[in-house]
């Protein structure tokens, strides 16, 4: 895992910011459950939010809605009703995705109060946010608290494929407050939108580790390892899927 501020590369190319999660959904992978991925985002130097390793409150929806439909500071039930109105459906036809955590009990109760469906995931909130922008998943909105670095990665994906997202860092200790100040975050209560977390042109890539709704997992053959990767770019809105075969070549030894 790279640490924030770490410099990598041979210093001969353009300067860029990168954000990585080598294994998003470690528990999913360890238990051979669906949906673990390896994720990276890349953008021009100084354009990615240097999010500390802490929690982040998030709300996200896919593309095609007027700006301002959702509000991080509004109760979950109000956001569901507003989204349903913008979509032209009843709240009962909206599905919200959340991490299955005790801290989300109130949000879940408010979502169900207006008749909306709840999809709970054990891990993997980068994919959870992306699902909002993929019509085939049936997911309309992401709600709840997850990791801050994962929030930046998810914002990079939405910048490429469209959508809305609002976040706020959860700064709940003096030590964390001091650490964020050293990282240049002056307002710990700031509400971030996608453009605040990812500016300019960016790339997003994710490779499946275990098969899930978004990507096929790694498949091990006799001499071939197969992977599936999705690559997105914000400048063009292009989404590419790369099915790769990694061959185990014979090693030749010279006497």
For this entry, give a set of tags:
255 residues, alpha+beta, D-Maltodextrin-Binding Protein, domain 2, six-stranded antiparallel sheet, six-stranded mixed sheet, 24% helix
What string gives the helices and strands in order? EHEEHEHEHEHEHEHEEEE
Range of helix content: 10-25%
Overall structural class, as computed from helix and strand content, comes to: alpha+beta
Give the CATH class of the largest domain.
Alpha Beta
CATH architecture of the largest domain: 3-Layer(aba) Sandwich
In percent, how much strand structure appears in the residues? Answer: 25-35%
> How many individual domains?
2
Which shape, going by the Cα principal axes? globular
User: Rg, please?
Assistant: 19 Å
In total, the number of strands is: 12
Query: Distance N terminus to C terminus?
Result: 39 Å
CATH names the topology of the largest domain as D-Maltodextrin-Binding Protein, domain 2
Summarize the structure.
This protein is an alpha+beta fold and 255 residues long.
Structure description:
The protein has 255 residues and is α+β, with helices and mostly antiparallel strands. It folds into two domains: 16-48 and 205-247, 2-Layer Sandwich (Fructose-1,6-Bisphosphatase, Chain A, domain 1), CATH 3.30.540; 55-198, 3-Layer(aba) Sandwich (D-Maltodextrin-Binding Protein, domain 2). Helix content is 24%, strand content 31%. It has seven helices and twelve strands. It has helices at 26-30, 76-87, 105-113, 125-131, 148-161, 174-182, 194-197; strands at residues 16-24, 37-44, 55-61, 95-99, 117-121, 141-147, 164-170, 192-193, 202-208, 219-220, 224-233, 239-247. A hairpin with a 5-residue loop joins strand 11 (224-233) and strand 12. The protein is globular. The model has no long low-confidence stretch (mean pLDDT 93).
């Amino acid at each position: 895992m790279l640490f924030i501020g770490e410099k990598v590369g041979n210093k001969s190319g353009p300067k860029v910011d990168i954000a990585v999660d080598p294994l998003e959904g470690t528990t999913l992978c360890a238990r051979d459950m669906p949906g673990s991925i390896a994720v990276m985002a890349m953008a021009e130097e100084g354009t990615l939010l240097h999010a500390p390793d802490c929690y982040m409150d998030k709300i996200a929806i896919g593309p095609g809605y007027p700006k301002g439909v959702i509000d991080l500071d509004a109760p979950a039930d109000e956001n569901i009703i507003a989204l349903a109105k913008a979509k032209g459906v009843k709240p009962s036809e909206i599905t919200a995705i959340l991490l299955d955590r005790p801290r989300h009990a109130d949000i879940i109760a408010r979502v169900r109060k207006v008749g909306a469906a709840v999809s709970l995931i054990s891990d993997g909130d980068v994919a959870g946010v992306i699902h909002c922008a993929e019509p085939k998943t049936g997911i309309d909105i992401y709600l709840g608290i997850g990791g801050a670095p994962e929030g930046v990665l998810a914002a990079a994906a939405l910048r490429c494929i469209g959508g809305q997202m609002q976040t706020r860092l959860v700064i709940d200790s003096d030590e964390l407050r001091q650490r964020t100040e050293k990282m240049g975050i002056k307002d710990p209560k700031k509400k971030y939108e996608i453009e605040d977390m990812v500016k300019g042109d960016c790339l997003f890539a994710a490779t499946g580790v275990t098969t899930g709704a978004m990507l096929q997992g790694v498949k091990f053959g006799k001499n071939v390892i197969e992977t599936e990767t999705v690559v997105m770019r914000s400048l063009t809105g292009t989404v590419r899927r790369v099915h790769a075969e990694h061959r185990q070549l014979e090693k030749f030894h010279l006497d």
